């Protein structure tokens, strides 16, 4: 008869029990630090000053050929000031320029974005999100060309051409301000678009009735000087100016009569009849009124 012998090894006991793997604290002691959950949308940036390697060079002009438009080259327009150059444009030419700009094909998005989003060299979150994908994203596109209309004197609540902005939105003294946000993260930054596009746009100035032409010309010379300084800073190899400054020679009341389709707010402060006013639409007013649910109950 066979017999099986099972040899039992002695169990070694430790004087200190191993810690419990559970993350729950039953004794009310200080909780263990939680491991942060990574966010796939926002990059994790270390605190402190940015490393030198993360700095991106100053934006340079892309090598794409400049776009020829109704306003460029400006040889067909009379020059009212030589240095810096300022040209004049009448109401018919303004209408033709805006019509051509509104029907011009837009460039490919990858040639203008994320430059339009605003890539400040000190904004590490923006740079970490965009720039590592391609180091040339901060290049200023030549394929993008626009028109900025600036009203000189008075408020924008009257005598306003469609799309016109105040001078302070695009210029500070004789320089274009840098609108790129140095801190924070935003994929769009719509609030900087006007100032962002101004340096690469032809700028047309006009004044409401009563504004002296000398006042309009004075601001036009400052803007033209800002365009020249901007070109020397970001595109020193370009000999020709790609954007220019114009002053409207037609008085505003004549512009109202000749081209009412260009006017957003008339000289009397009333919105142009041909412009859709979303704040005064009757159908919107009806839908915003409370609907009765029952006696003495509205929603």
TrEMBL record:
It comes from Coccidioides immitis RMSCC 3703. One of its GO terms (biological process) is nuclear DNA replication. InterPro entries: Dual_spec_PTase (IPR053239). Residues 1-60 are annotated as: Disordered. GO terms for cellular component: nucleus. Signal peptide: none annotated. GO terms for molecular function: protein tyrosine/serine/threonine phosphatase activity. This is Uncharacterized protein. Residues 22-33 have a biased composition (Low complexity).
């Amino acid at each position: 008869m066979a017999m099986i012998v099972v040899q039992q090894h002695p169990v070694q006991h430790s004087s200190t029990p191993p810690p419990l793997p559970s993350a729950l604290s039953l004794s009310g002691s200080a909780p263990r630090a939680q491991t942060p959950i990574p966010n796939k949308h926002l990059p994790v940036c270390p605190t402190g000053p940015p490393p030198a390697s993360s700095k991106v060079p100053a934006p340079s002009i892309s090598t794409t050929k400049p776009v020829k438009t109704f306003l460029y080259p400006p040889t067909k327009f009379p020059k009212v000031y030589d240095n810096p150059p300022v040209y004049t444009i009448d109401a018919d030419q303004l209408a033709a320029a805006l019509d051509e700009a509104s029907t011009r094909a837009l460039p490919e998005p990858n040639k203008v974005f994320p430059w339009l989003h605003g890539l400040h060299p000190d904004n590490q979150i923006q740079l970490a999100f965009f720039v590592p994908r391609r180091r040339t994203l901060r290049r200023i596109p030549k394929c993008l060309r626009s028109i900025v209309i600036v009203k000189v004197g008075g408020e924008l609540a009257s005598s306003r051409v469609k799309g016109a902005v105040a001078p302070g939105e695009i210029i500070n003294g004789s320089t274009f301000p840098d609108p790129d946000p140095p801190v924070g993260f935003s994929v769009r930054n719509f609030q900087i678009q006007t100032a962002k596009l101004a340096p690469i746009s032809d700028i047309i100035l006009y004044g409401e009735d009563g504004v002296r032409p000398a006042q309009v010309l004075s601001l036009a010379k400052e803007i033209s000087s800002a365009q020249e300084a901007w070109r020397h800073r970001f595109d020193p190899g370009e000999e020709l100016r790609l954007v220019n400054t114009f002053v409207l020679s037609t008085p505003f009341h004549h512009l109202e009569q000749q081209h009412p389709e260009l006017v957003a707010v008339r000289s009397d402060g009333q919105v142009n009849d041909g412009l859709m006013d979303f704040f005064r639409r009757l159908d919107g007013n009806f839908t915003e009124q409370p609907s009765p649910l029952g006696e003495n109950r509205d929603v």
